[in-house]
What does this fold into?
Amino acid sequence: MENTLTSSAQPLIYTSKGNVPIDSVKLEVVWDVQDGYIKFTERYRDANGEVVKESAHVFDRKGSFAAGIAGSFA
Amino acid sequence: MANTQAMCSSFKGELLVGKHQFGAVTLVSRTSLTAPTTDSFKAALYLVSATINSTTTAYSATGEVSGTNYAAGGVAITNATAPSVSGTTAIWTPSASFVWATVTLATAFDACLVYNDTQGDASVSVHTFGSTTITAGTFTLTMPTNDATNALVRIA
It folds into this structure.
């Protein structure tokens, strides 16, 4: 007898309101591109527009800098 | 009040007295500690309302973010790449991203302080990235390219 696994359940996503069906939230993404960094924000809102999950990922393009200076006897 | 990206002035002075140990080194003429171990460094996040900048001398919990799954003091920095010299510039960059997973940080933050956890939490540098909040999510700070133009810490 053939044993076939089928499921109609939606994948769940972890939010501030617990695990909810992925279809119940809406994803919006924001890119913030600056000279010093690039920030990617992924934000999920529920049916009421409330943010229930938000992550951010920053790429620090440039670190900090110091110049070494040798003094002069002049 | 605001946070400002900078290399901390105290750090520059402390380099001259050998306070920070980013990599292993074999010293020649010291009477002790001829092969000191590498220090441990950490990264902490600060609120938009905080004031950390070049005058910051050490880690402080004042103005640090708080929230679900965020541990005061921040995260340990993975330091598997020793400092090096590229051309005429000394460079150092952590070998992995700073990651705060499954956190909720509801109050806006915009800065990260890198500090020496081994040497009395002495500050190294401040890095800013714009106002950010996290809800049941992950905050990742990915390191720049470790070269003379972009490395996290550069001394030319």
About this structure: The CA atoms of residues 93 and 152 of chain B lie 5 Å apart. Helices of chain B lie at 9-16. The radius of gyration of chain B is 16 Å.
